[in-house]
Amino acid sequence: QQALARAHELIEKVGLNVAVLNRYPHEFSGGQRQRICIARALAMNPKVIIADESVSALDVSVKAQVVNLIIELQRTMKIAFLFISHDMAVIERISHRVAVMYLGEIVEIGPRQAIFANPQHPYTQKLIAAIPKTDPSRRHLLREANNDELPSPFRDKDWQPPTRRYEQVGNQHWVMR
């Protein structure tokens, strides 16, 4: 009885009707499945939830709903999310701090505003330049991406691993040089 009451509470918290508890997994949409995964994670009262590409397969409107749910949970439940994604537009919307990885290493880390306003590493610059600018008020933010290829151990036979020297370029903003 207590477990069922908790399940009802969590399902409602993620914006679903408790009637979904009587359905089979194949009967759910992608967005409903993501909400159920979030409810399952919340069941343990975590301080941190790791979400790896949790909205990548969702259509735009459902993605926005799930992102808004995560932001609301951050605010109301004081839960931290380690949000892993290649979608920089979602990262910009959901994150407080951003770490950019290239070839398995963090190449830039800092507050969201610093990373998006002043990206320093070439890979970060390319990622941010690739964000579609659909909002007319943000068209002035268009960035020119350098079309040079970044060094890669898969393509360049003379590639050398980075020296792993980080330089502080702003308040809590670091970049690998």
Automatic annotation (TrEMBL):
Its main location: membrane. Keywords: ATP-binding, Cell inner membrane, Cell membrane, Hydrolase, Membrane, Nucleotide-binding, Repeat, Translocase, Transport. It holds the Pfam family ABC_tran. SUPFAM superfamilies: P-loop containing nucleoside triphosphate hydrolases. One of its GO terms (cellular component) is plasma membrane. GO terms for biological process: peptide transport. It is found in: Cell inner membrane. Residues 107-143 form the Oligopeptide/dipeptide ABC transporter C-terminal domain. Residues 5-54 form the ABC transporter domain. Gene3D superfamilies: P-loop containing nucleotide triphosphate hydrolases (3.40.50.300). It is a peripheral membrane protein. One of its GO terms (molecular function) is ATP binding. NCBIfam families: oligo_HPY (TIGR01727). This is ABC transporter ATP-binding protein.
